[in-house]
Structure formats: structure tokens, C-alpha cells
Write a structure and sequence with these properties.
The complex is a heterodimer of chains A (about 250) and B (about 200). With about 250 residues, chain A is of the alpha/beta class. Helix content of chain A is about 35%, strand content about 25%. Chain A has 2 domains: about 1-80 and about 165-245, Rossmann fold (3-Layer(aba) Sandwich), CATH 3.40.50.300; about 90-165, no CATH class. In chain A, the strands form 2 sheets. Chain A has a 6-stranded mixed beta sheet with strand order 6-7-8-3-9-10, sandwiched between helices. In chain A, strands 2-1-4-5 form a 4-stranded antiparallel beta sheet, covered by helices on one side. Chain A is globular. The two termini of chain A are about 30 Å apart. Chain B has a single domain (about 5-15, about 25-205), classed as 3-Layer(aba) Sandwich (Rossmann fold). Helices cover about 20% and strands about 30% of the residues of chain B. The longest helix of chain B is centred in the C-terminal third of the chain and has 14 residues, at about 135-145. The radius of gyration of chain B is 17 Å and the shape is globular. Classes of the chains: A alpha/beta (about 250), B alpha/beta (about 200).
Chain lengths: ~250, ~200
Amino acid sequence: MALFEARELHLRFGDRVVLENISLAFEAGCLSGIMGPNGAGKTTCFNVLTGRYRPDRGRVMFDGADITGRSPQAIARLGIARSFQLMNLFDEFTVFENVAIALPQTRKRGADPIGVAYGDAALVAEVHEILDTVGLGERVDQIAKSLPYGERRALEIAVALASRPKLLFLDEPTAGLGSDGRARLAELVHRLKGQVTLVVIEHDMEFLFSLADVISVIHWGQVIAQGSPAELRTNPWVKNSNLGKLA
Amino acid sequence: MSKAPLLALEGVSKTYRRGLLDRTPAFRLDVDFRIDMPSIVGVMGPNGAGKTTLFEMIAGSNAPTEGRVVVAGQNMQRVRYRERDRLAIHYHQSYQVRRFSRTRPNFMLETAGSAYPVVHLFDEPQFNTQDGYIGFMLDFFRRLRDERRLVFVCLHPTAKLHLELLQEICERFFFVGKGTVRPFADFGGIVTDPDVRAYLGALAQ
């Protein structure tokens, strides 16, 4: 059975059909991609999968348990982390502190968690390990707001990794990045592959096609196509598009 | 599901009048057809001819002045508002429309007999050849038909590509114009019709 499964999700906002009969399965250890044109329902779908919205119909299953309608906090505690299209960081804090405060061990420590974190060798080592994974090992003491955009994104991923999730959702990680930033982010995501189960929503097809094991195409609030990048590329219209020209 | 046709428009007409005082009709559309088998239907017609009105009447968001729209055996105007999209669903470009003209209270209406939409109405979907989505969209239309749904694709062709797309995926056609909806059995039939040729202009060459 897949690690994460959505079965026949339906969602209406007032007089709009936002999701119509969406079924998705994300296998453990894989990178699953979700792509679709603007307004197709990708982020809304993400918000249902991560508990921000409750579907009108349908079920969401994680690791064998039904998590439909549970709060985002409860879902996070089960081992699901997510990043956002718009970044959430503590701008005035250092890179180290942003990650340290996200560690579950730190959070349990009351009044001055960051002070405690600096004094705890095991925690410091853990933060450094996470920062090395995302390539921010050299930036430990920099203030978050002073980081270039691409590195802020990497820091956000580090914050999500701090909870040691089984499943990590990334919402449009390449948004706002230039081609250089994209290449570096692709490298980072590639490194994470295998360490954590990944689900990436992306508008940038090139990025997804180079990284994903399986891709679901969402349009009109529905899954209109599904398959490996190689399978999706056999479509004659895809072959003739910009996407088909990608090696 | 019953043996009823997927879709029947029985003596349907829609009249828009100039105003409350001036009752002169400003627009009138008369439609009568039935479709028994799953298929992909191409719809063309000039702006203002009534393509969207036709789709709204099928989706149950716009009540016909006369006649009835029957989807899988159910009169759309008798189905609960929030359940009408389980019979027919109207995709207005990238988002969907479900704003209903309420003619009677919900409790007087019946529940939908289907869990998933039977008729899918795509109102001028955006086809962009550069991004490759077009291929997935066309396959999706075919998949819906293979799952025994009825698919309408309404296009106002502005490029040769739009005609090629209709030719590639549609099995039958409707032309909305001059206050009626005329059926055509195939692509050759619709593009050689004098009215349609006049509408297509240079594209018909």
C-alpha cells in the first residue's frame, strides 16, 4: 500500500467546483510530482492533503490511518511536513536558530529554547547535519533575512526537515528562482530523494520531469493524466511542445 | 443508471427580453435534440449566438423559458442545486460555474441519481501548444467518453489549430447560430455548410 493516499476527493467553494474526484497515491521513498496550469487546483489539492481544508467527500490516508479532517498540527505530528509557496521564516533569527526552533526536542523546552539549543551539543550537531544536507553549512550564523532568495528557500526546506518527516510536501519550490537557483534547488531535491518521501507541486515542468518518479497532471480540479515522465512524454502533443524538446 | 438518454433537450427555448417594461425579445434560442451514446461533441458559433446559454441550460444554472433539459433521466430544474454538478458540470475556461437561478426551495427538489457528472461541458478551454498540456486535455476528454460520459467542447476557432483539434477529438458537432442549434454528423459536414463557412471566414479556406 502507498504511504499516502487520497481517495475520491471532492471540494466545492460556494458555487465553484474546486476538486472533482481526485485520487492520488504517493509511494514511500519516491518523488511524486503534481503539475497543472494556473488555477487548476494544485494548491487547493495540497491544502486538502495537508489538512488545511476538509474535503466535502473522499478520504485521505497516511501510513494506514485515516487522517481526513484532522487538523494540520495533528497531521504534522504524524510525520508530514510542508513548505509554502510564500516563505515562512523568522527573518531576524539566524539560520541556526530557524532550524533549532523547529526541532521537536527544542520545542519541548519552554521559556528560552534557543538559548538551551546553543548549549546542547547533540542539538547543535543535529542542526548542523540538517543544514549540511540543504547546503547551508557555511551560513549557520547569518541572519535569515540577509540570505539570497534561493538560500532562503533551502532554509525553509531545512526547517521542514527539522521535524524529521516521513513525507515532505513542497509547494512550488522554484517560484521566484532564476535558472541558477533552480539548478541548485534541483540538486538539493535530488539529494533528498530516497531520504524522505517527497511530493512536489510545480509549475515548472522541466524541473519536475527531471526529478519525479511519477507525475499527476491536474486541471479543472481533476487528475487528467498520470504516469512516469517517460510515459507522459510519449503523448504526441507533449513531444511537439517545449516540454518534448527537453532531453 | 437508467436506460434514459444521457442528454435530452425537449422543446427547449430561451428568451431574453429587453427589460421588465419593454417585453420585446432581444434574444431567442430554440433547441431540441437527444444524445443516447457517450461521445465528444464539438460546439461552434459566433459570439452572442447562445453557446454559453446552451451550456448553462444543460448544467441547470440557467432555466429554459420553455421545455426541459433531461440529464440521465432527470429534469435538471427539478434537481437540488448543490447536486446538479453530479449530473452535468460546466467548466468555464479554467474555473467552474455553479451559480443557479433559484426557482423553488431546495427541499422541493429531488436528489441527483448519479455520484459523478454524466455530462461535461468545456466552455472555450485554453489550448496552448507550447506547454504540452493540450495532449493531456485531449486524452482526458477521450477518457471521460470511454467512461461513458458525454463531453461537449465549445470553441470559437481563431486559428487553424482549433479546427484541427475539433476534427481530431470530436465525433459529432453542433453549430449555434441564427437562434437555433444545428447538428452535424461529422467534421466534413460542418465545415462545408454555407453558414459555418461564413462564420469561419478565412479559416474555412
